[in-house]
Amino acid sequence: MKMPNVNVLEEMVDMMSATKAYQANVTTIKSAKRMAMKALEIGR
């Protein structure tokens, strides 16, 4: 019987890292949006 060439533990760690990176990017984008909105409010 042959086993698949997939390391489940490694794949889980990669998936968790990708999820954390995505969350960090979303947070950064939200912060940039808030700063831009505040800048527009200051300009009024």
What does this structure look like?
0% of the residues are buried. The chain contains one helix and no strands. The chain starts with 7 loop residues before the first helix and ends with a helix. The chain has 44 residues and is mostly helical.
Describe the protein's topology:
Elements: H1 8-42
What is the compact description of this entry?
Pfam families: Flg_bbr_C (PF06429). By secondary structure, the chain is mainly alpha-helical. The chain has one helix and no strands.
Features:
rod-shaped; mainly alpha; 0% strand; 80% helix; 1 helix; 44 residues
What string, H for helix and E for strand, traces the elements in order?
H
User: Could you give the count of β-strands?
Assistant: 0
- Share of helical residues: over 70%
- Rg: 20 Å
Runs with pLDDT <50, length 5+? none
The helix-and-strand class reads: mainly alpha
Mean pLDDT: 94
Distance between the termini: 71 Å
Described by the principal axes of the CA atoms, the overall outline is rod-shaped
